[in-house]
Amino acid sequence: MKKRILLVAITLGMSLFTTSCNNDDNEGETIVPLTGKWSISKVGVIVGETETLVDAPQNEVGCDRDYMELKTDNNVIEGDFDSSIDPCALFTDSGIYSRSHNNITKVIDNVTTVQDIVNLTFTELKLKDADGNVEVYTR
């Protein structure tokens, strides 16, 4: 009898623990970290239900890919490799960013950009703005 009561108590305790750890406030938000250096790989557009992506034309042939680095202190650095003056010269802009559920808001040079986080894994970050423009980053 004592074993049965102990078993019921353990089962009840485990179910309460499991239930209390459930967080419904995330609304599909992933636990993958957003911080890190993300290189742009594809850009495109979503029209209706159709998504069209192409290799990012802003990436200079023979240079590293343009990137966005999201720091843990909410600073963001955008890097652009450009060969118009010097081969593969790096130009950077910096600003701040914030995340609210599945949106990311960046403010760089007093320009605010809000994008939906469509997909976030350890290796891919896909962002979409209100006009349907899509950016795919990899790390």
What does this protein structure show overall?
The protein has a single domain (33-138), classed as Lipocalin. The chain is built from 1 helix and 9 strands. The chain has one helix at residues 2-20; strands spanning 36-47, 50-55, 67-70, 75-82, 89-100, 103-108, 111-120, 124-128, 133-138. The longest helix has 19 residues, at 2-20.
Keywords, separated by commas or semicolons:
9 strands, eight-stranded antiparallel β-barrel, 139 residues, mainly beta
What's the total number of strands? 9
Widest sheet, order of strands: 1-3-4-5-6-7-8-9
Largest sheet: 8 strands, antiparallel, barrel
Give start-end ranges of low-pLDDT stretches.
Answer: 1-26
- Distance N terminus to C terminus? 57 Å
The domain count comes to: 1
CATH topology: Lipocalin
Keywords: Signal
Protein name: Lipocalin-like domain-containing protein
Organism: Flavobacterium jumunjinense
Signal peptide: 1-23
State the gist of this model.
The protein has one helix spanning 2-20, and strands at residues 36-47, 50-55, 67-70, 75-82, 89-100, 103-108, 111-120, 124-128, 133-138. The chain is mainly β.
Secondary structure topology:
Elements lengths: L1 H19 L15 E12 L2 E6 L11 E4 L4 E8 L6 E12 L2 E6 L2 E10 L3 E5 L4 E6 L1
